[in-house]
Amino acid sequence: MLAAVGRTCPVTALLASLLLAVGPLAHAGGPGVPWQSLTPEQQQLLAPLATEWNRLPPERQARLAAGARRWAGMGPQERARAQGRMQRWQEMTPGERAGMRQQLQRFEQLSPEEQTRLRENFERFRNLPPGERQELRERWEKMTPEERQESRAHKDEYKDERKGERKDERGGGAKSRPPRGPPARR
Question: Are residues 89 and 101 in contact, defined by beta-carbon separation less than 8 angstroms?
Fold first, then answer.
């Protein structure tokens, strides 16, 4: 069905694929979303599904409506990024998709602090120059699972050491900051 939708409306295929990738967002067994309750923009985005809308499971209707709502709130750059992600998703094999779903489930089981830390690390990686990113990627891929684990542990130890050093430098945890404003005149 997604292939047929993709030929008629790439945006709808994109939304449908994204929602399938993320998994259920609504509670199963809840009431469906009547087509008439969708905004005109949602109906336009989901038009290729209009004829079968009432036959879709209620949770799928809810996911599609939520996806169309998110799409409507995106700017041009966000939409372009989302289309790129959906294109990559559609190009994945079923096994790769299953692996991504498992990664998402593991991520969702992390504490909010760990999720934030991972997002920050990803942003730092993404902001590296392309050459550095490629070098890091290649180095990581050459590591054995044991070396990767050791690298993660060492990084955490290093972070803890640096926190202790900064705390000592500030006098036992007092938050001293350098003076603000222009330098003093002589």
Answer: no
For the chain, percent of residues with pLDDT exceeding 70: 67
> Which of 109, 105, 15 lies closest to 60, judged by CA?
15
For 64-121, the pLDDT digits (tens) are 999 999 999 999 999 999 999 989 989 999 999 999 999 999 999 999 999 999 999 9
**Distance between the two ends of the chain, CA-based, in angstroms?**
76
Q: What distance lies between CA 79 and its chain's CA centroid? A: 14
The residue among 69, 58, 117, 67 whose CA lies nearest residue 89 is 67
CA-to-CA distance for 136 and 157, rounded, in angstroms? 20
Q: What sign results for the dihedral spanned by CA atoms 87, 22, 57, 63?
A: negative
